[in-house]
Specification:
Length: about 325
């Protein structure tokens, strides 16, 4: 594991102190305990020092994964424990969905791999270096709630009021890029033109339901991020309809929405995601309702599909081509 620089070590200690003073921490003691972390612990991995201290101080499930992640049952029992799929719903994790192996084309050649490695060593990827957060949730098509997709957001924050996220179908190295989402604060949302607001969805229920999660992040750290997301709004487009089996990104981008009530999301889809990361959405829900403030009510201008007046979706329209004097068009 690579050693960290002194500023990164100080960051570890800062995060540790933040959690040590969290009012709902499962760790006993105070911020002073952070200084007891050994030099070896403090010099490895982001918030590694806190992680070790947290493990030593408490084995409570709230510190890391849920209780469900530590169960020792066989694969047959795990499969039996999964809920049934919601009738009439298709998902991106169902049998009809396409996978990365279904993408047409020849395997990458040795020359291509060498060129990729060389370019990766020479070029800079500054915009991607700003991506600092992985959040996993679920979307559905704005005009069709029976088509549901697991969405892995990888986000950067230009400032405190705006996040911009690229969306993949998983967090694996060969994951497919299937969309993007812009996330803004409630203050910025309220300043949007009314006709613009129909493209945005609220995040309050995603957070309160426990289905929006930051995989592999300690629960207390996740709480800090969820607190910021409760009152935000997202504008999301998916470009690859993997849930219907598309092996390439076909057709126009599709406007996506997020769930707003219990019983809308396919329980099997959620359970599969929870099983993958050793989490439990119901436990997250109970924990967050005790620790986070959900008094804010989302704007009625968002989540337009709930108004019972139809739904907005993107379609292309053929238009006259506008040309300059130097471009010839047959």
């Amino acid at each position: 594991m690579p050693l960290l620089t002194r500023p990164q070590v100080r960051l570890n200690r800062f995060v540790c102190e933040t959690f040590a003073t969290h009012p709902n921490r499962p760790v006993k003691g105070s911020a002073a305990n952070c200084n007891k972390t050994s030099a070896k612990e403090a010099m490895h991995g982001p918030i590694a020092g806190f992680a070790v201290s947290c493990q030593r101080a408490s084995r409570a499930s709230g510190c890391f994964a849920s209780k469900a992640s530590r169960s020792s049952v066989g694969p047959e029992q795990e499969a039996a424990d999964l809920p049934a799929q919601k009738p009439g719903v298709t998902t991106s994790t169902g049998p009809q969905a396409s996978s990365i192996e279904d993408i047409p084309g020849q395997p990458q050649s040795l020359q291509g791999k060498v060129l990729e490695a060389a370019e990766g060593a020479i070029q800079q990827f500054s915009p991607f270096s700003r991506i600092h957060q992985h959040v996993c949730g679920f979307h559905f098509y704005a005009h069709d709630i029976t088509r549901q997709v697991e969405a892995h957001h990888f986000c950067a924050c230009p400032n405190e009021d705006v996040r911009q996220c690229v969306i993949y179908d998983s967090d694996k190295p060969n994951a497919r890029l299937i969309g993007l989402e812009y996330i803004i604060s409630s203050e910025l949302f309220e300043g949007l033109p009314e006709e613009e607001k129909v493209y945005w969805h609220s995040h309050k229920f995603e957070v309160s339901s426990g289905t929006l999660q930051a995989p592999r992040v300690p629960v207390l750290a996740e709480d800090l991020e969820m607190k910021k997301l409760i009152n935000t709004y997202g504008k999301t487009f998916h470009t690859w309809q993997v849930d219907r089996g598309d092996t390439l990104p076909l057709g126009p981008p599709q406007l996506m929405m997020a769930f707003t009530e219990e019983g809308q999301a396919d329980p099997l889809m959620v359970a599969k995601r929870d099983k993958l990361y050793g989490t439990n959405s119901d436990e997250r829900k109970e924990h967050r309702r005790k620790t986070l403030d959900f008094s804010h009510q989302p704007s009625s201008a968002a989540d337009h599909w709930m108004q019972g007046k139809g739904a907005h979706q993107l379609q292309t329209v053929k238009m006259d081509f506008k040309s300059d004097n130097e471009t010839s068009v047959k």
